[in-house]
Design brief:
- With 558 residues, the protein is of the alpha/beta class.
- 37% of the residues lie in helices and 16% in strands.
- Strand 5, helix 7 and strand 6 form a beta-alpha-beta unit.
- Helix 1 runs parallel beside helix 7, helix 3 packs across helix 16 and helix 9 packs across helix 12.
- The longest helix is centred in the first third of the chain and has 15 residues.
- The chain is globular, with a radius of gyration of 24 Å.
- It binds thiamine diphosphate and magnesium ion.
- The site of thiamine diphosphate (TPP) has 20 residues, from helix 17 and helix 19.
- The site of thiamine diphosphate has 20 residues, from helix 17 and helix 19.
């Protein structure tokens, strides 16, 4: 007779799960034993948060839920930040937590936390499994909910006695494919009419455009309409071969160079925009007409209130929309003349060799050593704005950043997951010296898993982004600096390799050597953050107040 944990593991195998990340506690020991005889690999991490970041990133990259495991109380609570990361970032994830026995209470309330309630606001579904017989259906439902648009995390709590109890000999619930309906004809006609009437149309690719299932239809839409596009931070890289129509990435909400185009657009086709992202532009009463194209209807917000919606499976719906537009858009390229001005200003100073290197130079050099399909996973810090703005991408999900929860600590685990999913590609984590230290212990996991991974640490001895905001807001410089370990020795103590870059010209050779050498290799480089204020405040302010020569007006259609 199978016990509860056997039914759970059989149900997970049925979902195609091949690895589970986490740290078991005594309440999970039945599950661990069932895993021992299964096809699923248990991958231990050094903190539950990292396990859940990895599981969420698996979901983000594959569209199928990643799975993580923890004990009750303290272990489960360590999953909370990553649950929020998966919820805000729409990453399918299944979290399995242990719990005290529910039929008897031999340990009274020791370590008891109401985990199911704690996770209600952090998940799409948070449930206790109260009996072994319900396991096959609950697991199937959990995976369905985690994957379904809008994807996100689900928590299943398996109490110790339910895991150990004999259950009926049930088969898992078979998995079948589910297609998402395509947008309604009336919605497509309405959207087409607005786009055909536009004088200066612009497409925007948002977070949901990066879903693995989205990306093929998008490229076709861009190619067939020839409307230029910009992206949000999480929508980067979704249009292969669309480079000639790329206008930039909106890393700031307003008054960056890309807003030269955004502010002139009269119709914006917002594909996959999710208002969980920091706004890529601010809608106002006199702004452009916005058409929301996504899997789910728009959430209306103060700065996002679309005028029309095309709701349905994004790829096929865009194909139908392109059918109505192809060859009929006289003004498709009206904003294109702005492109060169915008992009050349973005790349300003990116080959300057001052020491320490500028953020622009670091982004430039990283791009040189990462092939088109290579993956850069960012932690959260000031450099994220520079990478979002300056790092050009040609393949979906090749710049993994978190512009939703924007948590520190996810950079290294998400890069580790990318290296596991794509062992044949180059993968690099880029972290600040603050964010790296939040999960730096996972270097041990990365070494143990024999991953090939380069970890680039940008050293400023500070929580730089907050320090910068403090300065911009005219507060005195106070309270945001810290000391660092010797990063090279630190890496070596984990069995990884380490390099300290001490001249700007050495960065590319150091990164290249790190990739060529294989294994886990940490590269530490200082960064000159004086550019933050020089560009992101002074230069942009001067530009928009007219002391710099404004970009040329588009040649026609404006
Ligand atoms: C878990 C978490 N804590 C705090 C913050 C607020 N925060 C955002 S960026 C930042 C500083 C990041 O410092 P570092 O990683 O060194 O990057 P830097 O900006 O210095 O390049 C902080 C504290 C956050 N986003 N997430
Ligand atoms: Mg820092």
């Amino acid at each position: 007779m199978p016990k509860g944990s056997d039914l759970l593991v059989a149900a997970l195998e049925n979902e195609g799960v091949d690895r589970i990340f986490g740290i078991p506690g005594e309440e999970n020991l039945d599950v661990v034993e069932s895993l021992r005889g299964s096809s699923i690999r248990l991958i231990l991490t050094r903190h539950e948060q990292a396990a859940a970041f990895m599981a969420a990133t698996y979901g983000r990259l594959t569209g199928k839920p990643g799975v993580c495991l923890s004990t009750l109380g303290p272990g489960a609570l360590n999953l909370t930040t990553a649950a929020a990361y998966a919820l805000l970032g729409a990453m399918p994830t299944v979290m399995i937590t242990g719990q005290k026995a529910i039929h008897t209470s031999p340990q009274a309330r020791f370590q008891f936390v109401d985990v199911v309630s704690a996770f209600k606001p952090l998940t799409k579904l948070s449930r206790q499994i109260a009996g072994a017989a319900t396991i096959p259906t609950l697991v199937r439902d959990a995976f369905r909910i985690a994957m379904e648009e809008r994807p996100g995390p689900v928590l299943l709590e398996l109490p110790e006695d339910v895991a150990g109890e004999d259950g009926p000999d049930l088969l898992p619930v078979p998995v079948h494919a589910v297609e998402i309906p395509v947008a309604h004809r009336a919605a497509l006609d309405r959207a087409a009419e607005m786009i055909l009437a536009a004088k200066r149309p612009l497409t925007m690719l948002g977070a949901a455009a990066s879903r693995p299932r989205s990306t093929s239809g998008l490229a076709g839409f861009v190619r067939r309409t020839q409307i230029p596009f910009f992206t949000t931070q999480m929508g980067k890289g979704t249009v292969p071969s669309g480079a000639a129509l790329y206008m930039g990435t909106a890393a700031l909400s307003e008054r960056d160079y890309v807003h030269e185009a955004v502010d002139r657009a009269d119709v914006i086709i917002a594909i996959g925009h999710d208002t969980i992202e920091k706004p890529p532009f601010l809608m106002g009463p006199k702004g452009p007409q916005v058409i929301h194209v996504s899997y789910t209807p728009a959430t209306v917000d103060e700065v996002y209130f679309p005028h029309a919606e095309v709701v349905g499976d994004v790829g096929p719906s865009l194909e139908l929309l392109a059918d109505r537009l192809e060859g009929m858009l006289r003004n498709a390229g009206a904003l294109l003349p702005l492109r060169e001005g915008i992009l050349s200003r973005i790349t300003d100073r990116n080959t300057e060799d001052r020491w320490p290197p500028t953020p622009q130079r670091i982004v430039h050099d990283v791009r040189q050593v990462i092939p088109e399909d290579g993956i850069v996973a960012l932690d959260n810090g000031m450099y994220k704005i520079w990478f979002a703005r300056n790092y050009r991408t040609h393949v979906a999900n090749t710049l993994l950043l978190d512009n939703a929860l924007a948590t520190m600590g996810a950079g290294l685990p998400s890069a580790m997951m990318a290296a596991m999913v794509y062992p044949e590609r180059r993968v690099m984590a880029v972290c600040g010296d603050g964010g790296f230290m939040m999960n730096s212990h996972e270097l041990e996991t990365a070494v143990r898993l024999k991953l090939n991974l380069v970890v680039l640490i940008l050293v400023d001895g500070a929580y730089g982004m907050i320090r910068w905001k403090q300065a911009v807001d005219n507060f005195p410089d106070f309270g945001l600096t810290f000391g660092n370990p010797d990063f090279v020795k630190y890496a070596e103590s984990y069995g990884a390799k380490g390099t300290r870059v001490s001249a700007t010209a050495d960065l590319i050779p150091a990164l290249t050597a790190a990739f060529d050498g294989g294994g886990v290799h940490l590269v530490a480089v200082p960064i000159d953050y004086s550019e933050n204020t020089r560009v992101l405040v002074d230069e942009l302010r001067a530009h928009w107040s007219g002391t710099l020569k404004p970009l040329e007006e588009p040649a026609h259609g404006v």
